[in-house]
Design goal:
Distance between the termini: 35 Å
Number of strands: 7
CATH class: Alpha Beta
Number of domains: 1
CATH superfamily: Gcn5-related N-acetyltransferase (GNAT)
Largest sheet: 4 strands, antiparallel
CATH topology: Aminopeptidase
Structural class: alpha+beta
Radius of gyration: 15 Å
Strand content: 25-35%
Length: about 160
Amino acid sequence: MTNYFIRKIKPNELHQLEDFLYEAIFQRDAKKLLPKDIINEPELKVYIEDFGKPDDYCLVAELDGKIVGAVWTRILSGEVKGFGNVDENTPEFAISLYKEYRNMGIGSALMKNMLNLLRERGYKKASLAVQKDNYAAKMYQDLGFKIVEELSEEYIMVYHFTDIR
């Protein structure tokens, strides 16, 4: 699929992060989905609340005039920390695509574009948390993320930007 393109999110599109945050929740059982308002829980809401601060970045994949996926990063080291928080200087990834657009390479392209953006901005590393049985865990490893902590159900992974001189 080559007819999508990746771009920065526009301010009038930020409300769509609510949908993408919900889509980012790994749900094993399609018959027992969590309610949509789960995104209002503090540990999830922190990923999108007041988005647009200096360390907030978001890219979207657009196909036929519709946003079909988003990747966003922010530093989540305040009172409520992100699931993949490693320190107060490291942006943490969130990514999701609508189900019908998964497994087409769009997620990998979004991730690569965001890694390039963060590298250009001078970050030393980026982090994320992923459920061990989430198929995306392999994609993250293929992109260069390394497991730095193994919890009972998830991995904390870090991508180190290398300085090329």
